[in-house]
Every structure is written in C-alpha cells, then in structure tokens.
Amino acid sequence: MKICFDNEVFWQQKFSGVASRYYFNLIKYLHYNEDIDLKVFASIYLNEKIEKLPKKILSGYRLKNRIPYTGKIFEQLNSVICKYQIKKFIPDIIHKTYYSNNLEKLNSKIILTVFDLWHEKNSDYKYMPKKYALNIADHILCPSQKTKKDLIEIYNVEKEKVTVTYFGIENFTNNQTSSDYDNLKKRYLLFVGSRGRYKNFINFIKAFSKSDMLKKDFFIICFGGGSFLSYEKKLFDELKISNRIIKSENDNDETLYNLYLKAYCLVYPSSHEGLGLPPLEAMSLGCPVISSNHEAILEGVGNASALFDPFDIDEIKSQLESTLYSKEKIDELIKNGNLQAKKFSWEKCAKETLEVYKKFK
C-alpha cells in the first residue's frame, strides 16, 4: 500500500505542537510496517521534529526560520511541489495534514484528521474553515468521541465517515535528565502549551493570585507558547505575581521531559480540547494532574485528574489548594495517572489508523 502525507502542518508548526507531534509519531510507527510504501512530501518545511524521520521517507528541505513577508510565496511554492510529488508517487492514500484547499481530489483516497472544532464554536459557526477539506475527504479521524460528536453536529458529517483513534503519549526515554530548575524542585506548577484563547491561562493565574498560600509556596513555569506578551506581563504586575511566573528558556522535548519529572503538578485549565496530550504525558512520568472538566479532556484523564470548572476562578483556586496541600490526594493522582497513561500509545494509534487505510485500499 502506498501512503503519503502532505507538507502543510510541517510548514505551519515549527516546534512540536499537538498536530505535528501526532503526525510525526503516526508516521514513525507506520514506517515499521514493511507492507507500506510511505512518503512525507514536506517540500520546504519549518518543523524541527520531522528531521528525526528516516531520510528515505522524508522529502523536503528545512528552512530554519520564516523569512519576513514571504509566507504566501512559500505556501504557493510548497503547494506546487507537493502536488507534483503526489502525482508522481500515485499513492493509494493521501493523509491530508491541514484544512486548506491546496490539495486537489485525485484518484487517491483522502484521509483527514480533525483535532477539534474550537474555531467553529468560538465564531458562532460563522467561520467554517474545514468545509473544503471535509468535502474531499473519504474518511475522517478524530482524537475523541467528543470531537467526533462536534464534527457530526457542526458539519453534518455522516457518523459512518468518522473514526476515533486516540492519540498516544510521547516516548521521552531517550531524553537526558538535567539539573535545570533543581532549585525549584517540588515547588513549581507546570503549564504546557500556548496560553491564549481557550487555553485559559489567564483564569489559571488569576486563581493562583487570589491564594496567599499558593503565592507563598509555589512558582509557575510555562513551557512553550512563545515569550510572554506585553499584556501578560502587565497582568502579572497588576496581580503582583511577576516574581512567581517563569518562562522556560528552551521549548524542546528534553526540557519538557525534565519539567514533567520535577513539577509538583501539571495544571491544565483549557476550556476546549480535541483530547489534550499534556495531561497524559505528565501522568506517564509520574507528574500529578489538575485539569478542567471539559468532556474531551475527561476522555483522556479519566478518574486520574483533580477537576475544576475552567470558567470558575474561585473553583480553580479551591481545587488547587485542596489538592496541592494533600499528600494523600497527590499520591492517589500519581498512582491513577500512571495506570491511565498506559491506555494510550502511538503504536495503538498507528495500528487503528492503518485499519482505516486498509478499508480504502
């Protein structure tokens, strides 16, 4: 079976966001199957993680940084290169990695992964960016039952056209432990990912700032999401917590691995997710999790997370205090988290995805 992935997500995400992490691991495990002729037509890409893929399946050239004012030019160039390579390869399956209208409907079957429906819900269904991609897709994958339900309701997709394949957990075993943040060991709360919009970082720090105990006993370390913006710094000052919030210097897997290992807990306040990978990654490394009670997140964390309403700042504060100052609760979260994390693997995700591909061979 000949399978290929297009370039789009690897141009969109320079670092390992959820989408590029998903595709990297999916491709890595599919590559182990000798019955598959696998190609990644990345064209000109920014993503660092796919550099670790075998050279025989990766076609493209990595641009280390975006060149100002050239985004549209590179997108058009990538589209031309990718279309040419796909037509020459003649794949049985094209796994489309993003929602643009750059991919034409050819004789190959098209598989699309939909991660979440936040943009549609946030715009009161006035912004429907996935319509073209969904129309040309022969089958759609979703990371949770909640996302599948949203997709069917919002885009009126037939349920038989959608399959849930749960994401896996990053294998951090090749990373080295370091002494970074040792002076803050067991004294910081970890926040992972972008901080804007539905990630709900602002409600988290407002809840933190209302607790004299938390401000006295804990720092907050933010991994990923770029440097703090001016409005964030201003808010930190207003809340008098600027000296308690730290941005990690590096945004690589080794840093993330060490932060998970040494954090007192991961706080994941997101109000909307497709599934939510950081809680599962944290659990797999013995880091307890306190998270929002969003339906898709619950599919991942099960009973292994302390929960709160992401829109209720007082409830976030109360849950943080009652959990962080209870050794019994923390120990239980660690134990349950370790068991919950074992239910998710990229190998399982790849096997289930391959079964979908086989239906269209």
Structural overview:
With 361 residues, the chain is of the alpha/beta class. The chain has two domains: 2-168 and 345-358, Glycogen Phosphorylase B (Rossmann fold); 182-341, Rossmann fold (3-Layer(aba) Sandwich). It is 41% helix and 16% strand. The protein has 15 helices and 13 strands. The strands form two sheets. Strands 3-2-1-4-5-6-7 form a seven-stranded parallel beta sheet. The protein has a six-stranded parallel beta sheet with strand order 10-9-8-11-12-13, with helices on both faces. Helix 2 (18-30) packs across helix 15 (346-358), helix 7 (201-209) crosses helix 13 and helix 11 packs across helix 14 (327-341). The model has no long low-confidence stretch (mean pLDDT 93).
Task: Summarize this entry quickly.
This protein has 361 residues and is of the alpha/beta class. It has a 7-stranded parallel β-sheet. It has a 6-stranded parallel β-sheet with strand order 10-9-8-11-12-13, sandwiched between helices. The longest helix has 19 residues.
